[in-house]
Design goal:
Blueprint lengths: L3 E6 L10 H11 L3 E5 L8 H14 L2 E5 L10 H21 L3 E4 L9 H22 L4 E5 L10 H6 L6 E6 H6 L7 H20 L2 E5 L1 E5 L2 E6 L8 H10 L4 E5 L5 H17 L1
Helix pairs in contact: 1-2, 2-3, 7-8, 8-9
Bound molecules: zinc ion.
Length: 277
Amino acid sequence: MEKLFFGTAGTPLGSKGTDSISGIRKVHELGLGCMELEFVRGVKMGEKTALEVGKAAKELDVKLSVHAPYYINLNAEGEKLYASRERIMDSARIGHICGAKSVVIHAAFYQGQPKRDVYERVRNQFAGMCGELRDEGVDMTLRVETMGRGSQFGSLEEVLEITEVEGVLPCIDFSHLHAINGRNNSEEEFAQILAKVEDKLGREGLNDMHIHVSGIKYSEKGEKNHLVFEESDFNYRELSKVFSDFAIKGLVICESPNLETDALKLKKEYDRKHENS
Ligand SMILES: [Zn+2]
């Protein structure tokens, strides 16, 4: 990616319509640079619409990514595992037609099993899917997201380690990393997270980031729900400074309930710091 783009998780609230093309137009109009297509309740977009979405995004130079359905568990077996894989594969296939480069995935639940066993199972599933996508000519990066609850697969360490599979990269959800233990909310801690990404993936990794951010409510069990920045303790100002300090590139997707309002807030902070640096 040539720089750091900011955008919304789905169609901005102020769009004319609720469809993706209205969303792309609004993102462009607002001066934002990207949008995540939210296939979170199932991949319902057909190939024809995907082509139109891709055309609109290309014309307005809006970068797209895809969020795969929430109902996925690569630590399942039989029919459930098969359905999980298909949801990811369909997200990748349709996203590819849209011109997206990445699919974000909530990979699995531990279900009380040893984390090491779960890691190996999940890794093997990703290796299989990436191979199939390559065979189909679908050039998409599968992004394993850092998760906000202890029951969910996706610690920072896991999402970095699983990049051993070719075609897999992390989606760093900073709000989840904060919600899981109440830490990870200062300049120093944000910098430590990006330093770990750089350790594992090098400068190349920092140049191809995919990030989720929102205000967040949490308890000792982790994430409860998303909030707007102003109603949460999430330190987005310091986060934007660290983005600038590390000169990262890629996409930052805002998942606050007010979508574009917080996306613009974050972008404004970033631009201010970036221009002064
Ligand atoms: Zn997510």
